[in-house]
Amino acid sequence: VQLQASGGGLVQAGGSLRLSCTDSRRTSSNNGIGWFRQAPGKEREFVAAISWNGGLTNYPDSVKGRFAITRDRAKNTVYLQMNFLKPEDTAVYYCAAARSSGAYSQPDAYRYWGQGTLVTVSS
User: For residue 87, which of 26, 52, 44, 40 has the smallest C-alpha distance?
Assistant: First the structure.
């Protein structure tokens, strides 16, 4: 598994961004995929997760109703659509492949991590 996250950038509050996470080795099709974020001086935070076939998703209350995770198995890519962004969403966002097939919120459930992509939301 080799994950590449992309799509970060600068956006105004209330705006939208779509992040992508692609597995260039195409070996994570049976793994759950998660997104996490880490803001400066803060701990890593769970953002969203999706099961191997897309049938199960998981979100914390902080993003529920604003963010949506989907996956295109044919493209080996997982997307994170982020709407109604807030300044507190500013962070480096990381995608990760789980050790198993579910949609997990715990970082320990993930084995492979991609590099981050920076999302900055201005007020």
Answer: 40
Q: Do 54 and 71 form a contact (C-beta atoms < 8 A)?
A: yes
CA-to-CA dists, residue 92 to 27, 35, 37, 75, angstroms: 24, 10, 5, 24
Q: Is 108 helix (H, G, I), strand (E, B) or coil?
A: helix
Instruction: Specify whether the CB–CB gap between 117 and 20 falls below 8 A.
Output: no
The set of residues, in sequence order, having a beta carbon less than 8 Å from that of 27 and lying 6+ positions away, is: 1
Stretch 3-31: mean pLDDT, rounded?
A: 95
pLDDT digits (tens, 9 = 90+) for 40-85: 999 999 999 999 999 999 999 999 999 999 999 999 999 999 999 9
Q: 75: helix, coil or strand? A: helix
